[in-house]
Structure formats: structure tokens, C-alpha cells
Design brief:
This protein is an alpha/beta fold. It has nine helices and twelve strands.
């Protein structure tokens, strides 16, 4: 089963009312929840993290940082707040070592990135090669598949899933049934979703209902495929 990671984020920022959205949607059919290190101050993010952990959720902390010292600071936040995964940030060996000591999962990004929202650049060989370079020190990797600027995301997805022997989380812009059909065929370990539900692109009315729609759709697509 593809894990559905509910991100309380919109346009690459944690939403102001993240705690209330989580409280309203906590019964949605996913164990995996997360947020980014942008949009809210650290003390508010810590309260959100506590809400998620108290509810028994697996918590993903996504950082957009690139600089090593800032990535280490993100790692310390994850450790201090007993989070389960640090995802989406640039890879650094020092971060990998610190997280391994604390038993926090590490799924860094790969390939070239720029801008907000983060866009992905490079050839398929470049991106796959970068993922396999960091794989020995990471628990998996994240891939901004639908923000790739240099080709057909379907081509990248097929190559990446087949050639990177690690858990893969596809992040960003999963905002149509066509893309969910493609995700179901690729069968990554997980996908993140946030903005699509806040924008109500599936017409379900609220965040929790959107999660249920996506869970049901992905399960049906997997069976049909």
C-alpha cells in the first residue's frame, strides 16, 4: 500500500491554522502526517508536532534547507520533538550520522533544486545517480516528480523507482486523478499531499474528506492496475 502523508502545508508553507485542521481531520484514514519548517515559528511547530505524536501519528518533518548548518538545526528539531522522519532537505553526511544516532529516519531529496515551490532540475541519469550516491547513508529519498523541469515526469518516475533501491516518497503537485493513476502504477513507498487538499482540487469540501477520497482512489487504482 502506498502511504499517504498528509502535509499541513500550502504553497510550501505550514498553514497558520495547522493545529485546528489536524484536530478536525485526525480521524482521516492515514497514520502519516507532517509539516514544513516554514510558515510558523519553531515553538508553534513544536506544539503541532506534540499534537500529532499524542494522537499516535507517524510524523514527517520536511525541511527546505540546503546549507549544512541549517540542515543540522532541522535535524535537532526533529530529534528534540521525537519526530519519526526528516524529509525533503539537501543531503549532508553530518545530518545522516546525527539522525542515525537518534534513530530518526532520513529521506533527503536528490537532483538540482531551486525556487519556492521547489523545482527539480537535471537529467534522469543525474537525478537517479544522486539518489544512489546518498542511499548508503539515508533511509530512502524524496522525489519532486511533478516539479521536474527537464522532461516527462512519467519517464523520470519509472526510471527512478526501478533504479533506486530504497523507499521513495514522491512530493509536490499530486493534484489530479491522472497523476494519482500514475502514482498507483509507480508504487512508491509514499506520497505527500497538502496544497491540493487546501485548494480542494477534488471537490470534497475539507481536508479530512480529501484525504479519504485520495486513500480510496489510490486503493482502487492499485487493484485495477
Amino acid at each position: 500500500m502506498i502511504e499517504l502523508i498528509a502535509m499541513l502545508t500550502h504553497n510550501d508553507k505550514t498553514v497558520d491554522n495547522a493545529r485546528s485542521v489536524f484536530a478536525e481531520s485526525v480521524a482521516a484514514p492515514t497514520k502519516h502526517w507532517g509539516f514544513k519548517d516554514t510558515g510558523l515559528p519553531a515553538d508553534q511547530l513544536a506544539l503541532l508536532a506534540r499534537d500529532m505524536k499524542d494522537a499516535g501519528k507517524t510524523v514527517h518533518f520536511e525541511s527546505l534547507k540546503e546549507d549544512e548548518n541549517q540542515c543540522l538545526a532541522a535535524a535537532e528539531f526533529a530529534i528534540e520533538n521525537q519526530l519519526d522522519y526528516l524529509i525533503g532537505m539537501a543531503f549532508h553526511s553530518s545530518v545522516a550520522e546525527r539522525l542515525a544516532e537518534a534513530k530518526v529516519g532520513y529521506l533527503p531529496t536528490c537532483g538540482g533544486r531551486s525556487g519556492v515551490p521547489r523545482m527539480l532540475h537535471g537529467t534522469i541519469d543525474d537525478i537517479v545517480g544522486d539518489a544512489n550516491r546518498v542511499r548508503p547513508q539515508a533511509d530512502g529519498t524524496t522525489l519532486s516528480l511533478y516539479r521536474w523541469t527537464d522532461g516527462d515526469p512519467g519517464d523520470l518516475g519509472k526510471a527512478f523507482i526501478s533504479q533506486v533501491q530504497a523507499p521513495v516518497v514522491i512530493t509536490g503537485s499530486i493534484n489530479s486523478v491522472e497523476r494519482m493513476d500514475e502514482i498507483a502504477q509507480l508504487e512508491p513507498w509514499g506520497v505527500t499531499v497538502g496544497s491540493a487538499l487546501f485548494d480542494d482540487v477534488f471537490g470534497t469540501g475539507d481536508f479530512g474528506s480529501g484525504l479519504k477520497y485520495m486513500r480510496d482512489y489510490l486503493d482502487r487504482a492499485a487493484v485495477a492496475g
